């Protein structure tokens, strides 16, 4: 698991928006959150973690509650290590 602050640092902020996707059956649904909506989602989350190899290759390594995957910056792993690693 990672902290909310780590999650905010590794999310890719595109001019005030953070992109996400959610797997639903055979489809993937994308959604853009404002930074404030993203932070509220993190505040309400039970689990914030780094997802597996597939979502990392898709550049959506930030996993919230095992169902919502947010786009991450390219060097997210370095940031996680610099800020204390995963718990």
Distance between the termini: 5 Å
Q: Tally of extended strands?
A: 5
Mean pLDDT: 96
Oligomer: single chain
Give the ordered list of helices and strands. HEEHEHEEH
Uncertain runs: none
Radius of gyration: 12 Å
Q: What portion of residues belong to β-strands? A: 25-35%
For the largest sheet, list the strands in their spatial order.
Answer: 2-1-5-4-3
Q: Give the count of structural domains.
A: 1
Helix content: 25-40%
Major sheet description: 5 strands, antiparallel
Q: Helix segment count?
A: 4
Structural class: alpha+beta
Q: What overall form do the CA principal axes indicate?
A: globular
Give an overview of the whole structure:
The chain is an alpha+beta fold and 87 residues long. It has one domain (4-82). The chain is 33% helix and 29% strand. A five-stranded antiparallel β-sheet has the order 2-1-5-4-3. The model has no long low-confidence stretch (mean pLDDT 96).
